[in-house]
Design goal:
This protein is an alpha/beta fold and about 220 residues long. The protein has a single domain, classed as 3-Layer(aba) Sandwich (Rossmann fold). About 40% of the residues lie in helices and about 15% in strands. It has 7 helices and 6 strands. Strands 1, 2, 3, 4, 5 and 6 form a 6-stranded mixed beta sheet that branches. Helix 1 packs parallel to helix 7. It is globular and about 60 Å long. It binds flavin mononucleotide. Flavin mononucleotide binds next to helix 1 and strand 3.
Length: about 220
């Protein structure tokens, strides 16, 4: 058994997404102590920003005519795709940055999608997966910045609808409470959101470990 785990926090030492990912992984490890974990940290080891265009243009070019950069990008896409294809379950830990998707995750996603097994075929369809995402603020209905979180919906769209993963989502808002004094009024609410997210992470980890459908 193999779990693939991707992390995207730029501040791993204090990372809330990593902490929730650790809970999911712990449940997996308890059920599958012999399991391997394939780790991909797209913030510590970013996919080069030029790799995607090189892989796309290389795909339009006969193999014998591809530039060294195009061949290298294609090889990296294959390595990244192998990690997904060879895993039994997938875990993605991705924070919100600048009201949008982590650039590191997007760059990774775009490149891995150039591999024909990921972009063209239904290779990942039905694979159990968990998305952990964390938001510094709170964008729930009725909040002043409702609608400003342009990350979670896109992440769910591409993982669940484009790749067809059997996806569960663990989302924790208000991780900046306790960091930004302007949010001190929300201390109690944030503590509740944190423990709720931890419970969802435990449940999600158990489901992943059982390779059970998100809907069951
Ligand atoms: C450069 C930067 C930009 C951020 N932008 C946003 C943002 O637009 N909205 C938000 O709610 N939180 C934002 N945050 C807060 C992060 O989402 C929050 O700190 C989160 O917990 C980071 O993930 P991590 O704890 O796993 O590192 C930002 C944080 C950093 C460092």
């Amino acid at each position: 058994m193999t779990l693939f785990r991707l992390d995207a926090s730029i501040m791993p030492a204090t990372s809330a997404s990593r902490a929730l990912g650790d809970i999911v992984e712990q449940e997996w490890a308890t059920a599958h102590p012999e399991s391997a974990v394939t780790r991909r940290d797209v913030a510590a080891d970013p996919v080069p920003a030029t790799a995607w265009q090189n892989a796309v243009l290389g795909g339009f070019t006969p193999e014998a005519d591809r530039s060294p950069a195009q061949l290298e990008a294609g090889a990296l896409a294959k390595t990244l795709a192998d990690e997904l294809v060879n895993a039994d379950a997938l875990l993605f830990d991705v924070p919100l940055y600048n009201f949008g998707v982590s650039q590191h995750f997007k760059t990774w996603y775009d490149l891995v999608l150039t591999d024909p097994r990921i972009g063209g075929a239904a290779e990942l369809k039905g694979k159990p997966a968990t998305l952990v995402t964390v938001l510094g603020g709170n964008y729930d209905d009725g909040t002043p910045k409702e609608g400003w979180n342009h990350s979670t919906a896109w992440l769910v769209r591409v993982l669940q609808d484009v790749w067809g993963l059997d996806l569960r989502v663990v989302e924790r808002s208000f991780t900046l409470v306790g960091v930004d004094p302007a949010l001190n009024d929300f201390t109690e609410m944030a503590a509740g959101l944190k423990s709720d997210a931890e419970e969802v992470a435990r449940k999600s980890g158990r489901e992943l470990a059982e390779l059970r459908g998100a809907a069951s």
